[in-house]
Amino acid sequence: METISQFLILAIIFCNFFLLFSHSTKRLVDLAAIQGVLAAFLPLLNSREFFFEPFIFALIVIILKGFFFPSILKKIIVKNSAYEEKRREYYGHISWSMYLLIFFVSVWLSTRLNFDVETSAWILPASFMTIFCGFLTIILKSQTVSQITGYIVLENGIYCFGTAIFIHQPLMVEAAILLDIFVAIFVMGMAVFHIGREFKDSDSDSLGELREVFEEEAQK
Amino acid sequence: MISIIDLLRDCSISCFKEFSLFLIIMPIIASIICFLLRSNSQKRSVLFIAGFFHFLVSALLVFPQLYIDNISISNSNSLFISSFSGNVENAVFLMIVSLLFLGASYYVMGYLPMEEKNIRKDEEGFIINDEPETVFSGFMLLFLASMTLVCFSNHMGLLWAAIEATTLFSAPLIYFHRSRKSLEATWKYLVVCSVGIAIALLGTFFLSIAASSSGGSLYISDLYSTNSFNTLWLKLAFIFLFVGYGTKMGLSPMHTWLPDAHSEAPSMVSALLSGALLNCAFLAIWKSHLIVSSAGLESFSSSIMVVFGIFTLFISAVFIINQREYKRALAYSSVENMGLMCLLLGISSIAGYENTKQFIFINAIGHSLIKSGMFFLAGLVFFQYKSKKFSDIESMVEKTPTMSAVWFIGFILLSGAPPSPLFLPKFFLIKAFLSSGNYYTAIFIILAFIIIFGGLGRIFFSTLFGSKETEKDESPQLKKLLIPSQIFFLSSMFVSFLFLWFLRG
Predict the structure, then answer these.
(1) Which pLDDT belongs to residue A117?
(2) B356 in Cβ contact with B345 (< 8 Å)
(3) What does the DSSP assignment read for B281-323?
(4) Which of B171, B319, B323 sits opposite A187 (nearest CB)?
(5) Given pLDDT bands bounded at 50, 70 and 90, which one contains residue A114?
(6) Annotated domain spans of chain B
(7) CB spacing of A180 vs B188 below 8 angstroms
(8) Interval A191-218: pLDDT, tens
(9) Which of A16, A151, A212, B437 stands the most exposed, by the fewest C-beta atoms within 10 Å?
(10) Contact B196, B223 (CB under 8 A)
C-alpha cells in the first residue's frame, strides 16, 4: 500500500510540473482533474481498515474533481474559445526557475515544520508544492478558466495536506466544505461564462475597467 | 420588568437550538419560495417578511441573555453555540446582521420598483439590464442564512464553510446590474476571497495539528480550554487564519476586492457587505485571537494585528484622499474601520481585554449602522443624479434638501465627530497608545484620521453646495426611502449616548 501511495504522491508532483509548463487550457483542466482523483485515493490507501464514510467521500471527490469540474470547465473553454494562454513570457526559464524554487521551498518547509507524518514522508512537500503551484497558476495564467483551475489545484494541495495529518471532522463539516468547493467552482464557472459573453474574450487581462485614480493617470 | 426578562431568557435558553435552527433554515425556505414565485412584488414582500421575523427571533434570542450574563456554554461539543451569554460577540454580530438585513429588505421594496421604471445606461452607453429579481431575492436570503451560520458556529471548520458560503451567495448580488464593471468586480471578489478563504482552511488544518496533543478537536469551546498547544503550529495557524479571514475583512494589502465590489454592487448589497459581512470575517479573526491568547501567545497575535491595522489605516487614508467616486470613498472608509477594529483587538493586550471589547462593540455597531445608512443614501444619490462621480453632483442642498440634510448628518457621523459612536473607539485607541508610550504611533494614527476626515469632507461638501442653480426635485417616494438611513443614524447616536451612560455608570 505504501508503495502505491508513494507512486501517487510522485504523480501529484509531476502534475504540478506539467501544470506550470502547459499553455493549453484543456490540458490544465485535465491535469487538475488527474491530480484531484489521485489525491482522493490517498486517504483510502492510508487507512488500515475499511470505513464506509471515507470511501463514500472519496467517491464523491472523484466524481466532482474527476468528471464534474472538468466537464463544466471544458464547456466554458469551448463556448469562450479560450483554448490557449496568452502570457507566453512565463513559459521557459521563468517556469523552470519557479518550479525549482517552489520544490526546494516545499522540501525546506516540510523539514522545518518537524511534523511526524504517519504516511509517506513526501506527502507534506507534495501538498505544499501543490498549494504553491495553485497560487502560481492563479497569478501567472491570464485565462479566467486557468485561474479556476489554479483554485482547484490549490484545493487539491489542501486536501493532500488534510490527508497527511488525518483530520477527521464531523460529517456535517466535511460535507459543508465539499459543498462550498463545489458551489465555488459552479459560481466561478458562471462568472467566466458571463465574462466571455460580455467581453468577447475570457482573458483576465481584458478586465481592467475598475481602476484607481493613480492607475488611470499612470496609463495616460 | 426583571421577571419578564427572566421569563424571556428562560424561554430563549430552553428553545435555543430550535430558535437558532429557525434563524438558519427560515431564510433558506424563504429563498426557495422566492425562486418559485413569479411576481416581483411578492418576492420583495417575502424578503421583508423573512427579514422581519429574523430580526424578531434574533432579538428574542439575544437580548434576554445579554441582560443577565451568568450562563456558560453548557454543551461544548455542539456544532452550534448553545448559549449566547458566554459569547457576547456572536450575539452582537447576529443582531447587527439581522437589523441591517431588515433595513435592506425595506429599502429593496421601495428602490427596486423605482429602478424598474427607469431604464438606465452605464457610462459606456449600454442599457443596464438588472438581474432577475428571483436571483436577487433568493441569493439575498441565502446570504442572510450563511451570515447567521457564521454567528452560530462553534467549530472552526463550520465557521470556514459558513464564511466561504457568504462569498458564494453574495457574488451574484454584486453582479445585479449586469454591467461590465460589476462583472469585473464580481470576478475579483470571487477569486481574491476564495483564495483568501482557502488559506484560512489551511490555517484551520494547522490549528488541528497545533491541538493534536489534546485530540485535535476544532470545536471553538474546546480550543479555548486546551492547555497543550504546539506553539509553532499555533503561530502558523494564526498567521494563515489572519491572512485568510483578513482578506475577507478587507485588511490591507488584501483589500483589493473591496472597493470594486462595494462600488459596483447595488446599494442595499453594498450596505450588507460593508456593515454585516466584514464583521463576520472580523468575528472569525477575533475567535482565532482568543484561541491564541488562551495558549499564552496573546502578544504574538496582537503584534500582527497592530501592524496590519496601522497599515490598513494608512492605505485607506491614501486612497480616500485621491477618490473621485463617493461609493468607492465609502468603501475605503470601511477599510479604515476594519483596520481600526483590528487595531483595537491588537491593543487589547496593553489596554485590557474586557475594556477594549466594549470599544470594539461600539465601533462595530456604529460603523455598521452608519455605513449601511450611507450606502442606502448613496444609492438614492446615484438614482437622482445618475453619476457615481462626486464632481458631477452639486447643489444637493437646493435640489434635494431633505436628502442633503441626511447626507450631511451621515458624513458627520462617519467622520467620527461627536456625537458619532465612532468617536469613542478612536479616542480610546489614541489614549491607549499615548499612555503606553507609543507617541509616534499615536501621532501617525491621528494624522491618518485627519487625512480621512479631509478626504471625506472634500467629497461631501462638493456635492452639497455649488454654483449651479437648480430647482427642487425630491419625490415623496425618495423621501420614504430615506427612512432606513434616518433610523440607522438616530440609532447610532442613541447607541453612542447609551454607551457613554454605561461608561459613567
Answers:
(1) 61
(2) yes
(3) HHHHHHHHHHHHHHTT-HHHHHHHHHHHHHHHHHHHHHHHHT-
(4) B171
(5) low
(6) 2-504
(7) no
(8) 888 888 877 777 877 777 777 766 666 6
(9) B437
(10) no
Instruction: Say if CB B203 and CB B237 are below 8 A apart.
Output: yes
Count Cα atoms within 13 angstroms, Cβ side, for B290: 18
What per-residue confidence (pLDDT) applies to A49?
A: 61
Residue B338 near residue B278, CB atoms below 8 Å:
yes
Cell numbers of B286, please? 477575533
- The HSE-up count of residue B342 (CA atoms within 13 Å, CB side) is 32
Who's near B395: CB < 8 A, 6+ residues apart? Answer: B465, B466, B467, B468, B469, B470
Q: How many of the other CB atoms lie within 10 Å of CB of A2?
A: 10
**C-alpha distances in angstroms, B108 versus A196, B104, B142, B267, B372?**
30, 6, 16, 9, 13
Query: Under a CB-based contact definition with an 8 Å cutoff, are residues B197 and B244 in contact?
Result: yes
* Residue B349, phi then psi, degrees to nearest 5: -70, -25
Nearest by CB to residue A195, choosing from B183, B218, B324, is B183
Question: Across the strands, what pairs with B121?
Answer: B127
Virtual torsion, Cα B306, B311, B316, B318, nearest 10 deg: 150
Q: How many residues comprise chain A?
A: 220
Closest CA to B93 of B40, B44, B166, B187: B166
Q: Is B60 exposed, middle or buried (0-12, 13-18, 19+ CB in 10 A)?
A: middle
Which phi and psi (to 5°) does residue B77 adopt? -90, 45
Say if the Cβ atoms of B183 and A177 lie within 8 Å. Answer: no
Give the 3-state DSSP-derived string for B79-121, with helices as H, strands as E and coil as C: CECCCCCCCHHHHHHHHHHHHHHHHHHHHHHHHHHHHHHCCCE
Q: Decide if A191 and B205 are in contact by the 8 Å CB cutoff.
A: no
Q: Cα torsion at B234, B239, B244, B247 (round to 10°)?
A: 150
Cβ <8 Å between B232 and A167:
no
* Average pLDDT in chain A: 82
Whether residue A43 is predicted with pLDDT greater than 90 in this model: the reply is: no
Asked if A115's CB is within 8 angstroms of B209's CB, the reply is: yes
Residues of chain B with pLDDT under 70: 1-2, 65-77, 83, 85-86, 117-131, 505
Q: Is A207 on the interface with B (CB under 8 A)?
A: yes
Distance separating the N- and C-terminal Cα atoms of chain B: 20
